[in-house]
Design a protein that fits this description.
This protein has 149 residues and is an all-alpha fold. It is 76% helix and 0% strand. The protein is flat and about 80 Å long.
C-alpha cells in the first residue's frame, strides 16, 4: 500500500479560511481613516515642499477630524450597522425602491402641475390677469373711471 504524500481533501478544506463576514464598522472605519489621512498627507507634502504656511491648516483639519471621529466612534459603528440592516432589507424587497422612486416622481409632478396652474391663474392675483390695485377697486369705481375716460 502506498503512503499518502498529499493531505486528504477533508484536511485541505479544514485549512481554507472561513468566508469573511463583512463587519458593519469596517466601511465607517476606513472612511474616517481616509478622511483623516488625506489632509494629513497634504500637510506632509506641503511641509516637505517648504510651504509650512499652507501645511498648518491641513494639519489642523486632520487633527479636528481625528478628534471628531474618535469622539463619535460608537455612533459611527451604529450607523454602519443600521446601513447594513437597511441594505439587507432592500435586497430582500427590491420593489420598495421602485415604489419610493415612483412616489417621489409623482409628488414632484404634482407640485410642478400646481405651479403651472398657479402661473396660469395670474400668479395669485385672481383671474383675468388684472393687477392687484385693479382688484382692490370696487366695481362701481372701475366703471366710473372707464365711463369718464
Amino acid at each position: 500500500m502506498r503512503a499518502h504524500c498529499c493531505p486528504s481533501l477533508s484536511a485541505l478544506s479544514a485549512l481554507q479560511p472561513a468566508p469573511q463576514r463583512s463587519r458593519p464598522q469596517q466601511p465607517a472605519a476606513s472612511s474616517s481613516t481616509l478622511q483623516v489621512v488625506l489632509p494629513l498627507s497634504v500637510a506632509a507634502v506641503a511641509f516637505a515642499a517648504g510651504a509650512s504656511a499652507a501645511a498648518w491648516p491641513f494639519l489642523f483639519m486632520a487633527g479636528v477630524l481625528a478628534l471628531t471621529f474618535w469622539l463619535y466612534r460608537e455612533q459611527l459603528v451604529l450607523v454602519g450597522r443600521l446601513l447594513s440592516v437597511g441594505t439587507r432589507a432592500l435586497g430582500d424587497n427590491p420593489g420598495v425602491v421602485g415604489a419610493a422612486m415612483g412616489l417621489q416622481l409623482a409628488g414632484g409632478w404634482a407640485r410642478v402641475w400646481d405651479w403651472v396652474g398657479f402661473a396660469q391663474r395670474g400668479g395669485g392675483k385672481g383671474g383675468g390677469g388684472r393687477s392687484w390695485p385693479q382688484q382692490q377697486q370696487p366695481a362701481h369705481a372701475r366703471h366710473a373711471v372707464g365711463a369718464a375716460g
